[in-house]
Amino acid sequence: MDIRTCILEAATKVYGALGYRGATTRRIAQEAGVNELTLFRHFGSKEALIHEAVRCCGPEAKLIPLPDEPVDPYAELLAWASTHHATIRKHGALIRTTLAEIDEHPELISPNDPYALAYEQLAGYVRALQRQGRADAAVEPLCVAAMLLNALLLNGIMRDVMPQMMGPDPDSHVDQFVRNFLRAVGAPVPAHT
User: What is the CA radius of gyration of the chain?
Assistant: First the structure.
């Protein structure tokens, strides 16, 4: 692993555990096994380092593919939602910390971040279903996209904090989220197998 990636992963870990104030350059350097000067040489400032760590090591470093033209909505959405949910779960501490600090550090989240773009991506998928006559034309695509993504987000970030409320099987929750989403848009839902 190259030094830059090592520093970014260390910054993500320290920031997720200790927050912005606790993520000192000294702690990040120790975690990465480098000196502080190396951090500044690569990133220039703590602010730039934390922002880059959240952006590229966070829950959605890239947009998860979803077909432009739906063929099998249940299978396509289940794969897409399962990938989102697993990624969110993996980065739960980082996401919780970022959400808690967003008022003080709004630069940590951008409208161009892949997770933010996923709302419009999913809304576009719903519009495609509507054009195909496979979803209710009266449904507001961005609203139902938020419904599914927000359910995945909350379930994913709270699963390790409140396991008794989330249940033992995350896959069954994702399946139900997708089935309820399809019902909400008026699309066909396959029978349980």
Answer: 19
